[in-house]
# Entry
Amino acid sequence: MKRRRLTRRAFLTTASATLAAAAIPSASSQELGEPPRPYGERSPFEQSARFLPPSITPASSYSKTPLQDMFGIITPSGLHYEVHHSGLPEIDPGTHEVMIHGLVDRPLIFTMDDLHRLPSVSRIHFLECAGNSGGEQIGRPAANPQRSHGLLSCSEWTGVPLRTLLDQVGLKPDAKWIVAEGMDAGRLARSIPLDKALDDVLVAYGQNGEALRPEQGYPVRLVVPGWEGNVNIKWLGRIHVVDRPFMTAYETGHYTDLMPDGTARQFTFVMEAKSVITRPAGGYQLSGPGFYEITGLAWSGRGRITNAEVSTDGAKSWLDARLNEPILPKAVTRFRFPWWWHGKETSLQSRCTDETGYLQPTREELVQVRGLNATDHYNGIKIWYVHEDGKVGHE
Amino acid sequence: MNKAGLFIICAVIALAAPTAAQTQRYNLGHPATPEKIRELDISVAPDGSGLPRGHGTVEQGRIVYQTLCANCHGDRGQGATHYPALVGGQGTLPSKNPVRTVGSYWPYATTVWDFVHRAMPYPRPGSLSANETYAVTAFILYLNGIIDEKAELNEATLPRVKMPNRDGFVGDPRPDVPTRKLNK
# Structure
């Protein structure tokens, strides 16, 4: 309560200072400001927020990141997207444990203290829900970047390489997969091939310099770089080393893409190269002809982004955008592109290429292969339409 | 190079060597006892490993279902606006309006058991006993015409149930869109 009052007072003080400054210059400009506070909050003028859909099952729902309001590549932890299926558990890190068992020489239980003592790394990676922008594929384009692509965020994650933990328990020769399980109410579980587990998976307890947020799996989660969000098990409690996938509900009944011939793809782990212009984009009002910087995000689950291109003339021509450093593997890359709007109707779109040489496809190219029944793992080009009045929209 | 420099180089090599090894052990973590593993391990594989002993009939499942599941999924598993249908859709997967349900889509009966046991019923996940889970799984499979009305499921019979879409899954062929080189 105290913090809320302070914030409100800070807002009133700032607002009246602004008004007073306009009316009687300098009269109130020497009032003292607020003292330091133990945990900082953004300016009360900043109202950017996650989008929450109306839901009658709020414990099984999602929130979307306001990409149009973001700068740089790091998503503030309080605006990171979330999807959960059984609500947010409240977990005491003092009693939380991670058990590793199955096809191992020495089944072990790690406390949070154990995890903090082990050699750690920090890496920047994106997380993207498999279903991000799935509505675009089936012909329901969303009106702004948050609604169309907001199941994407990017953070610096700190933790222990899963490989280090697997070294502690010792793998038996027939170990081929792991089943990772969360300690949320529904004990969400996913199978992950051992090759990936030994490659770059993190058992992460840090997010953007502080402990994970509860929405992101506090006190510890898996980060599976470049792979669909659902396998990045939050509230990690158990890793079962096994010899084959266990075919859990979220790798059979869900997150498998149904093709036009009635077959479904499994396992579709990697999130392919994708980009979106975040500003000016749907919901933005151009204030008149003149200069605007176009900016957006590009990312690939297969590695680094090598190129991002922008078209401002309905895909007749494509020009390279400037990629902002750092350009990191399996992280979002910020691109920027100078643009003079001449006051005419046009469209804005971006496409990216990753280090494997893969070029982000159009929606039509994807639909031709995958049809209209699959809504996960969609990575088509997103088009924003600029109207003569300066309004930018999705149609 | 003086002796001190040589000593530092040797010390650095000595310290670096263990971290370079693939299987460095730190003696952290404590043993997971068989009892602890039994307590926490709830995962079930398609061959039935992990299934606890137990049994349930379609008739018993009907009662569990009507009491705990019908409120959201409908009295015959038909679903509702915000809740998935559990029944129907067989033969619709290649159509323009595919209906993906446990009956038409899910490839393994063990997955139904595992998911119901860990994550259902929605307001109180994990509250069903093993016998209740066998029973309600039997009822859902019966509603889909997959097992007989007189059937009973247990740890031996459940993995032998062949689901209609068992062979409906294919590997990931991506990149599936022809990769074009940039044309500049």
The longest helix of chain B spans residues 3-20. Confidence is low (pLDDT under 50) at residues 10-21 of chain B.
